[in-house]
Amino acid sequence: MTLAAVDTHDIKWMALRGGLAKLIGQGGNFALRLGFMVAAARLLEPEDFGLVAMVTVVTAVLDLFATAGLSSAAVQRPTINQAQISTLFWINLLVGVMLGVVCLFIAPLVVAFYHEPRLFWVTAAIGIGFIFNAAGAQHVAMLQRRLRYVTLAAIEFSCQFVSLGTGVIVAFLGYRYWALVAAAVSLPACITVCVWVTNAWIPSLPRRNADIWSLLHFGGTITLNAVVSYATYNFDKFVLGRVWGANALGYYGVASQLINIPTSNLNTAVGGVMFSALSRVQHDVERFKRYFLAGYSLNISLTLPITIFSAVFADDIIFVVLGPKWTDAAGLFRLLTPTVLVFGIVNPLGWLLWSSGRHVRSLQLSFLIAVVVIAGCLIGLPYGARGVAMGFSAAMLLLLLPIVVWCLHGTNISLIDLLRTAGRPLVSALVATALAFVADYYLSSQPHFEFVPFVGEAVVMAIVYPCMLLFVMGQKQFYFDLLKTFIKSPAPSSDTA
Q1: For residue 403, what pLDDT band results from cuts at 50, 70 and 90?
Q2: Is the dihedral of CA 352, 356, 361, 366 positive or negative?
Q3: What's the mean pLDDT when you consider all of the chain?
């Protein structure tokens, strides 16, 4: 039996509908996570964040194996049957249980490495989340194959609310760093329960002749890619915690998390939908190009203004969101913004490589990035958190052009296509930020409440940027066409994939 996916004639409409749902959902998730950080920053101490970061920087790499890349393999495959996806489910679950056990065994090593006995039970508790992630991986993949992103967005938002609410309650009760652990473990548990109930799919027993070797190869490559990327982008926290301690890592980790929240949410929202949609049209070259550039334009139009605004107004953002005791994080926040800018430009190229079957090239790129970024962090390490942030950002800026050129090589998408797509939002964001800076200069010289300059900056940015993008840079027709496609209902069809 072949499992249904979606009619290729409906893909554009469903991708837009799903993308809008994901954007709204990720916007809600961003608000929830921001609210949690506001509350947690006042209920907890920097040391509490640092303690949990010491564990997660080690254990989160194991989480990459919980799905073993098999959910992505199930989404990318043009067709898949019950026997294949059931076998993938049992493999996922087995790996998840093994990782939970491994996490328990490495807890003493984490304690010994950091010389911090409180980390033993934190490490053991976080390991439970691996099992929940693995148990729901294929159910999530089936929803993604069908482009049911409205359902997924509702599940993710509801579960985020439950998990962060749990964390706030635990923090309020005075359990300190356990609040962060409770939030981390309850999220995958809630998501897995919801996707099981929503999908109503029961896996059959695994079969040895299910023809899953190509899926395992794809998933293995994706997993290795994810492991290398994770190790690369968390090496800064790993060495900083080891050399400079929990307090320095607390400031650095919170600054890094805060600067990455908007762009990671946006990339998750648009990226998941685009990967599914591009996989469905991977053999239609012209259609693939149109879909990719449209998704890239939408993603970067949302990423660039947030990142540039954050770099210029870092002090105000840290003061408003985290409070006065976190002022040391403002400089780190600003120094890390170039990395987020590069992520916003190059992360969508991952959709291009994975959906078109160029996953091996993506892995090769990850190894290149790892060498340069780790070197940059080590060079900056003797200078503390600021040195690490500068080394990380310098490495990513150095890699930007080589990454883009290598990703586009051999495709029908040129560097000019990408520059033309990114240029309009970049110019719009620079102009809007400049005017917001002028507003800040004026407001700072007036008597006001402490939050007034930040509100004024944000309002000017929110008004000027879309006006520049839509009317001055000529993007009005592009978004108008997207709106028309979204409103228009697709033709009914019974095709399966």
Answers
A1: very high
A2: positive
A3: 80
Range of the domain at 16: 8-413
CB atoms within 10 A of CB 416: 8
- 123 within some domain: yes
Reference 55, options 14, 102, 106; nearest CA is 106
Mention every residue, 6+ apart, whose C-beta is less than 8 A from residue 293. 413, 417, 421
- Tell me the DSSP string of 312-369: HTHHHHHHHHH-GGGTHHHHHHHHHHHHHHHHHHHTTHHHHHHHTT-HHHHHHHHHHH
Amino acid identity at 150:
V
Q: Is residue 134 situated within a structural domain?
A: yes
pLDDT in tens, 252-311: 988 888 888 777 767 766 766 777 777 767 777 888 888 888 888 888 888 889 888 988
pLDDT above 60: residue 495: no
Partners of 293 in beta bridges: none
Q: How far apart are CA 428 and CA 16, in angstroms?
A: 24
Domain count within the chain: 1
Read off the pLDDT band of 492 (50, 70, 90): very low
Residue 427: inside a domain: no
Q: Is the pLDDT of residue 496 over 50?
A: no
50 has a pLDDT exceeding 50: yes
* 214: exposed, middle or buried (Cβ count in 10 Å: 0-12, 13-18, 19+): exposed
2 - beta bridge partners? 81
Q: Classify residue 446: in a domain, yes or no.
A: no
Torsion of CA 13, 16, 18, 22, to 10 degrees: -170
Residue type, 261: I
C-alpha closest to that of 72 among 269, 274, 218 = 218
Q: Are 309 and 303 in contact (CB under 8 A)?
A: no
pLDDT of residue 28: 78
Mind giving me the DSSP string for 11-25?
HHHHHHHHHHHHHHH
What gap in Å lies between CA 445 and CA 178, rounded to an integer? 43
Dist. CA 437–CA 226, nearest whole Å: 38
